[in-house]
Known about the structure:
By secondary structure, the protein is of the alpha/beta class.
Amino acid sequence: MKRCDMKIVMFSINPLYPDKVTGGASKNLYSIARYLGGLGHEVSILCAQTKNTLLQFSLSEGVTVRANLPFSLPFPQPYAVSGADLALITARISEALQDADRFYIHDGEWLIPEVYDEIPTIASFRDNIYPESVLGTFISKADDVICVSAYSKSVIEHSAGQFYPDLKDRIHWVNNGIDVNQFHPRSHGKLIKELGLDPDHEFILLHPHRPEPGKGLPETIRLVDRLIHRHGINDLRVLIPEWIDEMVSVGEEEFYDRMKQMMRDLDVLDHFQFIRWMGIDEMPELYSLADVTLCLGNIVEAFGNVAYESLACGTPSIVARVGVHRTLMPDDLIDKVHFGDIDDAANRILKYVRGETPPWEDIRSFIHAELNYEKQIENYGRVIGQCQKRDSLKFSRLEVSSEKAYRLAPWCYIQGDRIYHDFRGCFEPAQTLVSFVKGKDQFSSQDASCAGIPHVLWDEWITRTYLVPVMG
């Protein structure tokens, strides 16, 4: 993108901090903003206000953060505010857009689209599960849409895209990038000393996730139980960063308490160590000191930075075949297990205990080619810079007939005689469905009828959202 001064307003429903990063989405926003500021643009980021941070601070040259939006914190209900507060939020965003050239919505979570009717607007959808993002895909009037993975793009096209057929023409698929200048193997002696670890005599597992059930802590606990009590691996140490205090909700505190009780019940508590939340600059050291990073939950990641940052730092990752992890990386470059398959996860840990190593050269080549950080930021800059105002998308009713073509939904996959549904987070028996769709890219209710499938069963498959219309 050419250097040409513009005023760019960005929106984040998450709080931002001058001295710490709360996750991959925030890190990505910082990177995009700094890149645009470095091109000479004036960038203002409006974000949620917290009790313990500055109302305004400079992120870098040309980039100012204004933490002045009184959303409800912590999650999960940021819009659980009064009408008065929502009016104040709307007024502040409207005011910031008065002389703006572009409006960028991080994660698509600004839900009053009339505010940006006259401003070229870009929405980046970074997850497919939180209500604000899901609703945003349906009501957004964004002129351009950025998806962070092919999986996320397919989910949006086959959900909101059913009713807005032209949505697909606005979508830009830009894989999240992994900054290999930051994420690479690091020396970690200082961190080992701080945490009291003994890597020569301990096998270190890393669970670097927020305290949410879907992030896989119950599965990690069961895995440790299996490794210790069935396989006799007694030198395990599992590191779990504690979440930022002001971002911990009552539900998350209760979740931590349940998990600690589960550790006691399975007699593995002594193998777990809760550590402080690490800044983004320290994460490469944390990844580097671990032997394996675990991502065993059923949360439907649109990208999932942790697994790939770990690989960039030379530490193997084990992921559940959920959401983007099914397809982002080839099976021979990252360990994938079916959700809940603790035995398979344990066997993959055991091969690393025995000293096996992943194909690091191929992994590095893939990250450089497909998860290129510089290319990602440049592509974001290009989309933002070239965005033009378009007519609003037109709602179109879904026409249904016996000849209408359907396919297996992108949020489902088949394993044996059962089906896994990302948004229900479990396997379900589906022998008849598996037999019917085997070898078919698409099919209709008429095809099902000819195959002897009762209409009531076809309707059940549609109702359970196993099947979606084939998009033109």
